[in-house]
């Protein structure tokens, strides 16, 4: 064996580095696929033959509920027992390694009962107990499977490794649950299975590692935004998300699932609020067309939780959860902009052939905004790099895209594109688009082209985005050849202002106008009335001696679109609640009476600690992460979170290197923007923690800001490393290489946490419930 390995090594070393890596990766994938992921097959080879015609009995807690369907009547007695097991010699007792749960072909249509109290389960939580020869029952461990994922139906007997005389499969579901059942195959042998999806996933991991490892060739290829090949490569990033977008839209349109949920003596959960706002606007009324119970109108304080609970216990219906109740009508406190831009046109257009028009499914709108955010966030990051780090490599750009995409929380919004995710999704898209437009507004003049390829027609100059390699901005446009594209300024201001009507907390991003256009203000070419307030040493001298309002065109482009949006939103609030600044938040019917509730300041440190530093809870089974316990005293609104942001986004730990990178960032004219993003992120974090409480959705408010700061720090670290690798001592060169390895390792850790967090079963709207087939398919890879 050693001789064979020794003969392979010279051949492997003779290959180019890329081919060598490919051979090693292929070998590892082959071993993992055939050996590791097929351990159930290898460990069951020596197991006894399957038990033919097993004797099965149903526990008293199970009952027949249709052809091939069982129902749980009593969870304490809901089991299926196989007894009378004998070995090959006929002796009592048989070693049972696997039991396959065969569901048969029955579906929910075969079930005898069909209502909310008798759901039909396609995935089951079970436990296998075993009785040994001495008559003692041994308790196994909890397990689960999905009937459409065949590998998951092979259940490992972990109760006893020796001979057993009987096994019981306990059905750990709630009373009334129904499920399909055909038979139990005792000592079933899992087959050797080569999964193309699994091989493709491992190949993708190998490719990503090859692309982003510290010695990758991509770190030696300079970014060129004018290269057709690089543009196609970056556009390819969008392809899988475009497929997800099409699937989400198709599933939302054709699934026909209702967004209204109601049970007797409970609230009505209506998630059509955006569509109802559009319908109300089309009919010229500010309130939603929803019934209001008289008992709620007559209540002394309808916002009191005890009062509402009493009304519900009395059978009063039509009390809508998370709706605004004001002056005898129902409203919504969620932003009106998505309704105006998507829901209203959809209903108006479909009314041409459908009476009253159709309502746009909320998941479709959420998917539209998330897909738009994906595109514009890609453009935003590349614009920042192209403007401030024009000589950076393609590999570093990919690292930045990964950090920003993971830290913005967009992936988890996409996993549940429902009602509550629409507000942050739309706000993220408009913020990314607005910042991209602002950062593209400064244009530099290029030589013209007369159409004959001579390039001698300077009377028709072309303009491109300014970079730090171009001449610095001065107070004289004719001297520096730089102009401000007022259309981009205006549309950028419009997009940023629209965030107030999506999710109001994002409106703070308007403050980024100041660092982005700081040079224009200092040069007196925009917002001159602010520039005169600056000390003379901070101005870009000399200033032309003109009045304060000589920049009125650029000032109007910056402020007029935002003023128009604010005026429209304030008028809408005045129409609804009688006050332009009242968005209706205090009148919502939710977990507490917000008209009287005041957030206790003492909980702020607790919530901030959870948001940033709460470690994940490690478990001994897939996905090895679970939701930790978060206790807040006194009470504040909290929801389940996977972990703190810095645990989930370890790449943001690079922000700690920001002071050390100060000179590099100042040389690249991005220090002020990075500090502004960091300060704004802290402001958003404190505001959300104090006013909103603890919720994973709220990470979207500040996560993109911290991630963008980390993304700006990464190219500075790479530049610092490149300078010290060749110009200083051996120790400095080693330190520079370590710094690069740390950056890459943190980015890989960030991707790993994002992937693992996708499968956490206890988080809000987990994948095990939204897409159980995908969850159990991946889970079956790691259950042996």
TrEMBL record:
Transmembrane helix: present as a keyword of the record?
Answer: yes
UniProt superkingdom: Bacteria
Residues making up the signal peptide according to the UniProt record: none
Membrane-crossing segments per the record: 21-45, 194-212, 232-253, 330-354, 366-385, 391-415, 422-439, 490-518, 556-575, 637-658, 670-690, 702-723, 735-760
Which key words tag this protein in UniProt? Membrane, Transmembrane, Transmembrane helix
| Protein name in UniProt | Glycosyltransferase
Tell me what organism the protein belongs to. Answer: Bifidobacterium saimiriisciurei
């Amino acid at each position: 064996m050693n001789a064979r390995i020794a003969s392979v090594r010279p051949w492997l070393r003779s290959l180019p580095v890329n081919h060598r890596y490919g051979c090693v990766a292929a070998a590892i994938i082959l071993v993992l696929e055939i050996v590791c992921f097929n351990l159930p097959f290898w460990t069951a080879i020596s197991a006894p033959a399957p038990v033919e015609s097993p004797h099965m009995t149903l526990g008293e807690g199970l009952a027949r509920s249709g052809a091939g369907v069982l129902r749980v009547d009593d969870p304490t007695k809901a089991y299926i027992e196989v007894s009378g097991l004998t070995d090959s010699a006929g002796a009592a007792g048989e070693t049972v390694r696997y039991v396959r749960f065969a569901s048969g072909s029955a579906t929910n249509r075969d079930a005898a009962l069909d209502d909310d109290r008798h759901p039909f389960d396609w995935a089951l939580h079970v436990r296998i107990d075993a009785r040994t020869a001495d008559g003692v029952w041994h308790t196994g461990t909890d397990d689960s499977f999905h009937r459409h994922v065949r590998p998951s139906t092979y259940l490992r007997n972990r109760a006893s490794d020796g001979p057993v005389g009987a096994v019981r499969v306990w059905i750990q579901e709630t009373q009334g649950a129904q499920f399909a059942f055909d038979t139990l195959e005792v000592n079933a042998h899992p087959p050797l299975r080569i999964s193309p999806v699994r091989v493709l996933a491992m190949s993708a991991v190998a490719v990503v590692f090859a692309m982003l490892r510290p010695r990758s060739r991509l770190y030696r290829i300079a970014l060129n935004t004018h290269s057709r090949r690089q543009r196609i490569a970056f556009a390819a990033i969008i392809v899988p998300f475009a497929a997800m977008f099409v699937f989400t839209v198709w599933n939302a349109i054709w699934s026909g699932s209702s967004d209204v949920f109601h049970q007797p003596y409970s609230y009505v959960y209506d998630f059509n609020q955006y569509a109802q706002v559009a319908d109300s606007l089309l009919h010229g009324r500010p309130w939603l067309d929803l019934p209001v119970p008289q008992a709620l109108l007559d209540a002394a304080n309808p916002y009191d939780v005890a009062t509402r609970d009493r009304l519900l216990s009395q059978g009063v219906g039509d009390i809508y959860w998370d709706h605004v109740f004001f002056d005898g009508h129902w409203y919504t406190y969620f932003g009106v902009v998505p309704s105006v831009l998507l829901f209203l046109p959809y209903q108006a257009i479909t009314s041409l052939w459908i009476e009253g028009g159709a309502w746009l499914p909320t998941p479709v709108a959420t998917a539209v905004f998330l897909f738009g955010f994906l595109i514009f966030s890609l453009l935003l990051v590349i614009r920042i790099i192209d403007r401030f780090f024009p000589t950076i490599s393609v590999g570093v750009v990919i690292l930045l895209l990964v950090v920003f995409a993971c830290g913005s929380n967009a992936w988890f919004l996409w996993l549940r594109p429902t009602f509550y995710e629409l507000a942050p999704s739309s706000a993220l898209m408009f913020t990314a688009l607005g910042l991209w437009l602002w950062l593209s507004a400064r244009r530099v003049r290029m030589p013209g082209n007369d159409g004959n390829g001579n390039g001698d027609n300077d009377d028709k100059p072309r303009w491109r985005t300014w970079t730090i390699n171009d001449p610095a901005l001065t107070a004289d446009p004719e001297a520096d050849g730089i102009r401000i594209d007022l259309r981009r300024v205006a549309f950028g201001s419009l997009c940023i202002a629209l965030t107030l009507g999506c999710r109001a907390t994002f409106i703070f991003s308007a403050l980024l106008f100041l660092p982005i256009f700081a040079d224009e203000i200092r040069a007196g070419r925009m917002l001159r009335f602010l520039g005169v307030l600056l000390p003379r040493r901070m101005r870009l001298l000399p200033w032309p001696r003109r009045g304060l309002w000589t920049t009125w065109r650029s000032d109007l482009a910056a402020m007029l679109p935002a003023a128009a949006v604010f005026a429209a939103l304030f008028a809408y609030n005045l129409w609804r609640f009688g006050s332009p600044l009242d968005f209706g938040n205090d009148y919502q019917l939710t977990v507490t009476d917000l008209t009287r509730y005041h957030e206790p300041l003492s909980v702020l440190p607790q919530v901030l600690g959870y948001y940033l530093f709460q470690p994940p809870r490690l478990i001994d089974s897939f996905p090895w992460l679970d939701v930790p316990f978060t206790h807040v005293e006194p009470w504040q609104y909290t929801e389940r979170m996977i972990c703190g942001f810095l645990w989930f986004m370890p790449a943001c730990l690079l922000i700690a290197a920001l002071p050390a990178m100060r000179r590099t960032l100042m040389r690249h004219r991005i220090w002020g923007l990075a500090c502004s993003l960091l300060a704004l992120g802290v402001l958003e974090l404190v505001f959300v923690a104090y006013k909103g409480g603890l919720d994973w959705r709220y990470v979207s408010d500040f996560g993109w800001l911290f991630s963008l700061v980390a993304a700006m720090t990464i190219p500075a670290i790479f530049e610092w490393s490149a300078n010290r690798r060749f110009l200083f001592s051996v120790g400095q060169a080693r330190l520079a290489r370590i710094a690069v390895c740390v950056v890459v390792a943190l980015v890989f850790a960030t991707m790993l946490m994002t992937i693992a967090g996708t499968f956490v079963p206890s988080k809000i709207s987990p994948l095990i419930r939204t897409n159980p087939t995908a969850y159990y398919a991946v889970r079956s890879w790691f259950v042996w």
